[in-house]
Amino acid sequence: MKDIAVIILAAGKGKRMKSDLAKVLHRVLGRPMIEHLLNTLVTLNVKKIVIVVGYQADRVKDALSKFNNKADFVLQERQLGTGHAVLTAEDKIKDFSGDILVLAGDVPFLSGETIQKLVEVHRREKAAATVLSSIPPDASGYGRIVRIPGTDVVDKIVEHKDATEDEKKIGEINTGTFCFDSKYLFEALREVKADNIQKEYYLTDVMEVLRNKGHKAAVYLTDNADEVLGVNSFEQLADLETQFAKKFGFNEASAK
Hints:
The protein is α/β, with parallel strands linked by helices. 31% of the residues lie in helices and 22% in strands. The chain has one domain: Alpha-Beta Complex (Spore Coat Polysaccharide Biosynthesis Protein SpsA, Chain A). It is built from ten helices and eleven strands. Strands 5-4-1-6-10-7-11 form a seven-stranded mixed β-sheet, sandwiched between helices. Strands 2-3 form a two-stranded antiparallel ribbon. A two-stranded antiparallel ribbon has the order 8-9.
């Protein structure tokens, strides 16, 4: 996948973890969770990786020092939302022409196969943006995918806190994983407003911006809801670790 660039969002503290440690540095199967994602991307041989850091930036860089020849780091000094985080990476990636993946650093077990399928759908649909979605057993707390009825086209993505009661009934969620055509991403981001409950610049709002400009915003629904789950608590971290340790035969000793 040499024609793919990747931006990884890794700036947050992870307040719900109730820990002073940067969220992406919490260990899963013996390694910082973000390291699992980076190992997957290295095997895919993507052209460029940019990691957006913020909270405990130096500590995150040190933990990932073995990737220094494969990834660039950029500092998001103020955490103003996912859209703002991606904008901070623009200078590192502005000369790249192709498709840009935006991934969350707290989704450690996103597989190379799922990433490749997302890119395939994005290109097949000739979309300006494509979001990876899933249908978990409980969609509470997640942003909802609002489709144009009967299609694989996204009308908009609504964060849970901003959703209407009808929108909260939607089971399909945003996993935080996206593929964008580099020609449109940053231009659209500059039109995103922080007019939401969180007063943040949401990357998800890019989908609606692009659609309003006449571009296609598509969705790829994965049938592996567990693989794309992020980590928001120690309980989720433990559950995810147990699940994938069983699936792949991992243990902490073998992962080191």
